[in-house]
Amino acid sequence: MTSTPVTMDALRLTGDELADATVEALFSRGEVGKFNTLMRWFNQSGQPLPEGLPVVAREYLETTAQPPDWVDWGEMERARLFFIDNNVHISTALSFAAMPACYVVPHVAKLLSATHSLEYPSKRMAETGQFTVYLMQPDAFEAGSRFVPAAQKVRLLHASIRHHLRREGLWDEAALGVPICQEDVIGGQMMFSIQVLDALDRLGVHISNEGADAYYYAWRVVGAMLGVDQDAVPPDLTAARDFSDLYMARHMGPSEEGVRLTRQLIDLYEEVVPGTFFDPVVSAVIRFLIGDTAADWLQVPRSAWDSAVKLGPALLGVLERIEDVSPLGAWGLDYLGKLTTRFEIASLTRGRVMQYAIPEHLKSAYGVESAKPRTDRWTPPPLSPRLPGHGTGAVSGW
Q1: Under a CB-based contact definition with an 8 Å cutoff, are residues 287 and 265 in contact?
Q2: Which of 121, 277, 298, 360 is 20 to 30 A from residue 387's alpha carbon, by CA?
């Protein structure tokens, strides 16, 4: 389906019928607390569902336990190998490009603020990082894996936020559409797929066409597991570029919530970076990846490091040449990347397994108005020619 303002307006009117019905039933019967308690023990595919689980929840979990029947497992394996080869770069892009992309969409920033824990500001990043790592395991869809239960819980989390916002009258549905609507879920899918690939390209990471296609395909599978309407999802990266550009052009802008979430993100990673000398690097990388316009909206600080980080692509080029000529070097860099990703996730989760529980209420302060060939290098699809101001750099770059 070609993305147009008309088709995207229609997507703003739709949520997730299955998950919404499940959550409504759990709340109406007073079974949310019981569900969350039992779900703490349900973390692996193939694990027997807990005794005493509400019937409606059991039916939902049984219905959503399997991946779509159209999954190409060869393509998923190529996506996994791509992730292994680029895990540190992908983690950087997720943290410093994809998450700020969420924050630069005001109504999305408001939604994230509704469930963000002030006592544990790293929760959102911990959930995102852990979810991605689960997805890219070789047994992600097999018995014993953690990905499918995590996807099932995230889908219910989205439905619970819709439930609260509607019940408490905190969302102007006539003006904003359904909370966490199909347009926003697909928009998020674009942020974690094509916008991550864009960020890798800006970093100077050599991406093969095969790897880029496989990575995007994996996020299409994720979208299906999260209840996304597959008739509305861009089928390939070229169509994804159209959707992503149009989505951002329709919604991006400054907001108080976006500024606050960005400040929390910067503070979080400054704590992870040893010492204080390199703290400004965090802000500099964000500004480099999302561009000055979006960075200024989010009040990302400027520093002398803003120029220095632009040398990063050259350094990455040297490391990738080492990978190309030395199998031992390639193994060492991949292993170092794996350790770095584990360290980052461990720091964010503080050793916990994120549970993706259904919140029984929203925050009270919330107010709404593979080894890849280097010769076949991927380049980002051009800006959508149908956008107003095409060629001005107002959307991509950003």
Answers
A1: no
A2: 298
